[in-house]
Design brief:
This is VOC family protein. It holds the Pfam family Glyoxalase. By secondary structure, the chain is of the alpha/beta class. It contains two helices and eight strands, in the order βαββββαβββ. The chain has one domain: 2,3-Dihydroxybiphenyl 1,2-Dioxygenase, domain 1 (Roll), CATH 3.10.180. 22% of the residues lie in helices and 38% in strands. The longest helix is centred in the first third of the chain and has 14 residues. The chain is globular and about 45 Å long. The chain starts with a strand and ends with a strand. The relative contact order is 0.21. The model has no long low-confidence stretch (mean pLDDT 95).
Length: 125
């Protein structure tokens, strides 16, 4: 079972602004915070996400093929999360819309450090 995932950042303050906004839309806030690490979610709840400076002191880099998927409540929230990401320094990787014909609806974006995320809902009507 996944407890949380981390994404690397070279600017924790900038990441905090981005993920504070995303987390607020999803109804959660910060659950842990240190000088080099912030985690969002609900203790004892669903898996959370964290932004961290690299432990080895080297610059954080983006993992090729790595993506964090955020489960939204509905198609409207997928759109709101995408809009929030764009308004907080994110970049577009695929606007909200259906993907395939099996009810998968998603939006793809990157955070300000280039980490890829998506917001999705299954069996969207």
């Amino acid at each position: 079972m996944i407890g949380y995932v981390t994404v690397g950042t070279n600017d924790l303050e900038r990441s905090a602004q981005f993920y504070d906004a995303i987390a607020a839309e999803m109804g959660v806030g910060r659950m842990m915070e240190f000088d080099s690490f912030i985690a969002w979610g609900k203790l004892g709840g669903a898996p959370g996400i964290a932004a961290t400076k690299a432990f080895d002191g080297q610059p954080a880099t983006v993992g090729n093929g790595v993506m964090v998927a955020l489960e939204a409540a509905d198609k409207e929230q997928v759109g709101r999360l995408y809009d929030i990401a764009m308004a907080h320094g994110g970049s577009d990787e695929g606007a909200p819309g259906p993907r395939g014909d099996d009810g998968f609806y998603a939006a793809y974006f990157r955070d300000p450090d280039g980490n890829k995320l998506n917001a999705f809902v299954m069996n969207a009507a």
